[in-house]
UniProtKB/TrEMBL annotation:
The protein's name in its UniProt record: BACK domain-containing protein
Cross-referenced InterPro entries: BACK (IPR011705), Kelch-typ_b-propeller (IPR015915), Kelch_1 (IPR006652)
Sorted UniProt keywords: Kelch repeat, Repeat
Alphabetical list of Pfam families matching this protein: BACK, Kelch_1
Keyword Endoplasmic reticulum attached: no
Keyword Repeat carried by entry: yes
Cleaved signal peptide residues: none
Domain BACK: 9-111
Length: 281
């Protein structure tokens, strides 16, 4: 049985394709997509051909927290052999879901990234992405030029806070992985919270307000999957629990939370999306 890892999966994928090992080819492709952020740090990734790279970063199932990871991977590949590869930049930039990048990130690329700044075709793509942010009434027409479809990263369920019995309020977070059908603990929140609001923004999970067993809360904390820790953010102006919430973002609106009978919130967590309770969208 071949043991795949970030350092050998591309080489094994090439072997499988050369010798017509269909099942192995599918397995390595799935592994590369699921572990893209580790794979793109390897020497094998930097030695990909342009066609191989194009196929990987175009994949809808690429498991990335944000499209920034895809851009930085492409940039590293270009810089590995700048003289030969710079000509492919605009073509590869089409594989990045540019409208899903923030205005701040796009502006920084436009102004400070010399690879982008010196390439007319790249600047045009960034202009189109910025129009998507600033001219929402024309978004349908931009979808024919730039892809706005979120990546379909592997999803898990999160149970965030809630109550255990009549009085005990929880700060714990648990994650269910549908592939392995197992639950595992995630880092605890700083405060106990039931009837809280949970939402995702820019790939980070936010816990808002709620009730800690004594007081209604106005505090907010966020969980960063990369850092694997909860951090406090600015509190709300008023204490809240059992409330609706949304995100003002370029993606379709995030889900409005609903409380289940135990007071927990069950969230489905993908790269940047959540689905709450009965798979509300």
């Amino acid at each position: 049985m071949i043991q795949l890892d970030a350092g050998n999966c591309i080489g094994i994928s090439r072997f499988a394709e050369t010798y017509g090992c269909h099942e192995l080819c599918l397995s390595t492709s799935k592994f590369i997509c699921q572990h893209f952020e580790e794979v793109c740090q390897t020497e094998e990734f930097l030695e990909l051909t342009r066609a191989e790279l194009d196929e990987i970063v175009s994949n809808d199932c690429l498991n990335v927290l944000t499209e920034e990871s895809v851009f930085y991977a492409l940039e590293s590949w270009i810089k590995y052999d700048l003289t030969e590869r710079q000509q492919y930049l605009a073509q590869l930039l089409h594989c990045v879901r540019l409208p899903l990048l923030s205005v701040k990130f796009l502006t920084r690329l436009y102004e400070a990234n010399h690879l982008i700044r010196d390439d007319h075709a790249c600047k045009h793509l960034l202009n189109e992405a910025l129009k998507y942010h600033f001219m929402p009434e024309h978004r349908l027409s931009y979808q024919t030029v730039l892809s706005t479809r979120p990546r379909c990263a592997p999803k898990v369920l999160l149970a965030v806070g809630g109550k255990a019995g009549l009085f005990a309020t929880l700060e714990s977070v648990e994650r269910w992985d549908p592939d392995s059908n197992t639950w595992a603990s995630v880092e605890r929140m700083a405060e106990c919270r039931s009837t809280l609001g949970v939402v995702v923004l820019a790939g980070e999970l936010y816990a808002l307000g709620g009730y800690d067993g004594q007081y209604y809360l106005q505090s907010v904390e966020k969980y960063g999957p990369k850092l694997k820790e909860w951090q406090p953010v600015a509190p709300m102006t008023k204490s809240r629990s059992c409330f609706s919430h949304d995100t003002d973002h370029t993606r379709p609106p995030a889900n409005t939370s609903q409380q289940n009978r135990a007071g927990n919130l069950i969230c489905q967590f993908g790269a940047i999306t959540y689905e709450v309770n009965k798979e509300l969208r």
